[in-house]
Amino acid sequence: MAGRLILSATFLSTVIAASLPLHLHVKRAVDSGLANVHISYNEILHSPVAFTYGPCLAKAPGESHHLVGRSKSCDHDRLLWKVPEDAPTGHCLSAWDDKQSLVGRSDPIAIAPNRRTTRRRLRKRQEDFSIPMDNSSGIDAEGPWFDGVALLQDKEISVVNVQEAKSKEIAIVGAGMAGLMTWLALNQSGMSNLSLIEASQRLGGRVHTAYFGDPSERQYQEMGPMRFPLSITSSETNETLQIQDHRIVFDLAAEVNRLNSDDANFTVDFIKWYQTSPNGLYYVNGARKPNGQVPTVSEIRANSSLLGPSSSQVDPKLDELTDVLDNVISNETFIEQVARNVYKAHKTFLDQGLGGLGGDDWSEFAYVHNYLNYALNDTFVGIGDAGTEGFWDNLYESMYFAATDWRTIDGGLTRLPSAFHPLVDSITYMNRKIQRVQYNDTTQRVTLQWKTDPLDRTFQNASYDLAVVTVPMPLVRTWRLPGFSELLTTAIDTYPYEQVCKVALQFQTRFWEHFAQPIYGSCSTTTDIPGIGSICYPSYDINSTGPGVMLASYTSSDDGLRWASIPEEVHVNYVVDAMAEIHGQVVYDQYTGNYNRRCWVLDQYETISWASPDVGMRKAFIPAFFKTEKGIVMSGEGTSYTSSWISSALESGVRAATQVLLELGLVDEAKAVVEKWMARWIDV
């Protein structure tokens, strides 16, 4: 009998709805705190309309569960519905005119249990575990950071004119990977008035391939990002674990290839990157074999006596400290969790890391010295400095560099941003180096200001409804900005970034591939020569004839800054001498004299290499980055949960696009962006 009554109510509501002026329906499952209600008209109403949710046979607005919104006119075709956590399932949306007469009704709507309620219950069940082990695989898990309902809680949006919303003027400042990703997600959401603003004359930002000659000659090295970790295969179980958060890079490449109809001039293809080689050279403390040659990594592993006698004594306390830190940084169980879902692992570490202390509340130095009570001298020696670095960066970097399978882009990573040229050139404004940002509280528009020539006395202006800023924060802090909140202002003013300096050298042949123990690709050659850092051999065109380009020096942090002050010719000559000391006379014999040096601090359009936040900064500042202030949406790899990787920039672009869409009430479009790019950690 009860079932018949339900069917009868559903039938009656459907019959009633068909005869009313307004048709109300939802196109997507109501499974979160926000939903779009679509409105169509049998006839135009000239009175205000109130929208409610409640019983499908309600005869007056007062019988409803809650008010959804009000409209003064009928020029909209969508309603933004903020769904209360206690909203019952199976009820209907209704529309009422100013005389409280029914003018529209939906079919019964199924509402899934609110996901935030579910998450709180799960968290309560998990609170006894320091590192929960029940994360979902992949990146489909719910994320704890981006809450679409909270984003709009202070907005007076209830009805949406979709055409008007999609014609809003949106500026994307910065044409690096975050800016390009933001543009793509918004463009494919139907936003029709986008402008991409770039200070330099190129796309790509810090993605920078140095070509020696024409790109078709295939003589190049990466002076910015170089590689993408793909998966980790266990040497013990032979099980392969995919590194999920980098999948967005491969998805983006497939998408731009499709959009460019696989035009060979713009295709992005991946090839194997050789991260390690057993034949990499090991030149530390001047180590040489009896024949005078530098030993390989594998030879050192097989015969440690090649290193010569050690003058240092093993300190048991330092060995113990190393084990303690390894338990935190190289914890295989947590590394697996990070690989499966870095976003959920990040939240877990913040809440429960370091045995429940809170992962982002302690620097490595403070944890070892103040909490574990190691002596000051042991702490300095064991950690290396008394800096404010936290554990999180070491955790996810340990996972990435545990990868056993890597990829790079054939022809250079610059091919990825270059593939956007056919797509964005018509809406891209180069040579616009923004210096000032203003916000008008009355018009609620953002004005960007720049000079056509740096020596001009007057500024050029352009005004927008919203602006997405993907520029690194050290550059943003040189701008004149509107009055942001104290937290966002502090984030912009203090967020630290690393420095990198690279030197690439060209040789007549790939002589390293012709050694008795050939080196094919990799960054395995190790040296303690000051100012050299990593040495990487090309992973493309292995065993090819003709010239070859070696990344002969890759230094970061203090070295990356210090060597930039050395005159370029002096610096390059120093690197050539170091390569000859390691590889032999062949370096002098085959060096062509062609080189490329890129110290990012000298680049006026970037000035830095990657974000390296201090302890506590991600925990404090990520919520600030995810909040729109004065018409500004912050994006870029520095606003992500990880730093220094292209995937970080792309995911920040997905988040920024979603944030813009939610600002405009376009919830369906925001959900579509999230689903397409697998950014399922965003809760909308």
Automatic annotation (TrEMBL):
Entries under InterPro entries matching the protein: Amino_oxidase, FAD/NAD-bd_sf, Flavin_monoamine_oxidase
Record-level GO BP terms: amino acid catabolic process
GO molecular function: L-amino-acid oxidase activity
Lineage: superkingdom: Eukaryota
UniProt keyword Ribosomal protein, yes or no: no
UniProt keyword Signal present: yes
Signal peptide start and end residues: 1-17
Keywords for this protein: Signal
Pfam families attached to this UniProt entry: Amino_oxidase (PF01593)
Ranges where the Amine oxidase domain occurs: 177-661
Record-given protein name: Amine oxidase domain-containing protein
Natural source organism: Capronia coronata CBS 617.96
Organism lineage: Eukaryota, Fungi, Dikarya, Ascomycota, Pezizomycotina
